[in-house]
Design goal:
The protein is α/β, with parallel strands linked by helices and 354 residues long. Helices cover 36% and strands 31% of the residues. It has 13 helices and 14 strands. It has a six-stranded mixed β-sheet, sandwiched between helices. The chain has a four-stranded antiparallel β-sheet with strand order 2-1-4-5, covered by helices on one side. Strands 12-13-11-14 form a four-stranded antiparallel β-sheet, sandwiched between helices. α3 packs across α4, α3 runs parallel beside α5 and α12 runs antiparallel to α13. The longest helix is centred in the middle third of the chain and has 18 residues, at 182-199. The protein is elongated, with a radius of gyration of 25 Å. Bound molecules: adenosine-5'-triphosphate and magnesium ion (MG).
């Protein structure tokens, strides 16, 4: 078991306005382990940014407990870490954002160096460190460029280098790829993953795209209206989502919803014969190794016509989804469905032939 590095326990954040009271975060508890890439997903206004700003007390919660790397930042008696300790603690937590927040009048290297203003390193050491950081994010050649001379992806690389200047243990990424095109998004995600592996950096990743979670996270929390509605390993959540919102997010990431619309229009499906079933199957892990469709043909003479198939590797485990027309004798179809389920594949009948 890895060590727990972030604990948010029963966190509430309430914004009191003149006429309104906004409960941005409602009784949220999360545990993040060292080395996790922890995704937090939810639609706009769900409370994601507010929740992660609690981690470094940029947002003081209304109640709850915050523990970061064994230090209590805030407790149920609302006792806060002293200003000096908090300033030190915040160095352990880097942050990057959608709009990069670079200083336009400073070059890339000056932007990174700015984060070392309060460091005890000598001038030479600072220079050396900035060079190393820009190298780490793949931007050595653009050190002397101003933000206006850099692309979005390059600006985000500068922001990442700056966030890493004080050797943080945690990097919080709040929609850091939202302003980038898909290819650049992939590159930045690959960089975050590399930093996670190389430096053991814990990454807290806010996004509204489940695809991003799927690509690099190992755990995920889903937020809705200030509540944490579902939480777990990426593999568990993707193979067995419980809440409708989670299913919505997953469907947009897998493309199954779109595929189903197209499948429904096919002549074979519209005029599904009496001895046929349209089924959706899902499997995780070893079931993918089982040639189950071969088996049901050999054992029950049930044929499978695959209309859609998709296999992905989630956190190292294959997860597959198929839409298939099964055809055979009535009894044989029943037996085949049982055999499929027994092989650890979840099966859902979408349509019965008439
Ligand atoms: N300082 C504030 N004062 C008053 N209300 C706030 C404040 N900050 C956030 N809120 C409200 O809290 C709720 C949650 O906001 P938050 O920014 O955490 O959502 P989010 O999930 O990050 O959304 P997005 O995806 O759009 O960034 C919203 O209703 C927002 O208007
Ligand atoms: Mg936000």
């Amino acid at each position: 078991m890895s060590k727990e590095i972030i604990t948010l326990d029963h966190i509430d954040v309430v914004f009191e306005q003149k006429k309104r009271r906004i409960e941005a975060v409602k009784d949220v508890t999360i545990h993040i382990n060292q080395g996790d890439i922890y995704g937090i997903v939810g639609y706009s206004g769900a409370g994601k940014s507010t929740l992660v700003r609690v981690i470094n007390l940029l947002q003081v919660p209304t109640s709850g407990t915050i523990v970061v790397d064994e230090d209590v930042l805030f407790d149920e008696k609302k006792v806060q870490l002293t200003t000096t300790s908090l300033r030190e603690k915040r160095r352990d937590i880097g942050m990057i954002f959608q709009h990069f927040n670079l200083m336009n009048q400073l070059t890339a290297e000056e932007n990174v160096a700015f984060a070392l203003k309060h460091s005890s390193l000598s001038k030479e050491e600072k220079k050396e460190k900035v060079k190393r950081l820009l190298d780490l994010v793949g931007l050595s050649e653009r050190a002397e460029n101003y933000p206006s001379q850099l692309s979005g992806g390059q600006k985000q690389r500068v922001a990442i280098a700056r966030a890493l200047a004080n050797d943080p243990k945690i990097l919080i990424s709040d929609e850091a790829t939202s302003a980038l095109d898909p290819k650049t998004t992939k590159q930045i995600l690959a960089l975050l993953q590399e930093l996670n592996q190389k430096l053991g950096l814990t990454v807290v990743l806010i996004t509204h795209e489940m695809q991003i979670v799927k690509d690099i996270a190992n755990r995920v929390a889903v937020m809705q209206d200030g509540n944490l509605i579902e939480e777990g390993s990426v593999l568990d959540i993707f193979s067995n989502p419980k809440k409708d919102l989670t299913k919505d997010f997953i469907n947009t990431a897998t493309g199954i919803e779109e595929a189903l619309v197209k499948i429904e229009k096919q002549a074979l499906v519209q005029n599904l014969p009496a001895n046929s079933l349209l089924v959706q199957m899902k499997y995780a892990g070893n079931s993918t190794d089982e040639p189950i469709l071969n088996q049901i043909y050999k054992r029950f003479e049930v044929t499978a016509n695959i209309l859609y198939g998709n296999i992905e590797i989630l956190d190292g485990t294959p997860v597959g989804e198929m839409v298939v027309v099964l055809s055979g004798e009535k009894e044989a179809l029943k037996e085949a469905q049982d055999a499929i389920t027994q092989a650890g594949v979840s099966l859902h009948v979408l349509k019965e032939g008439k």
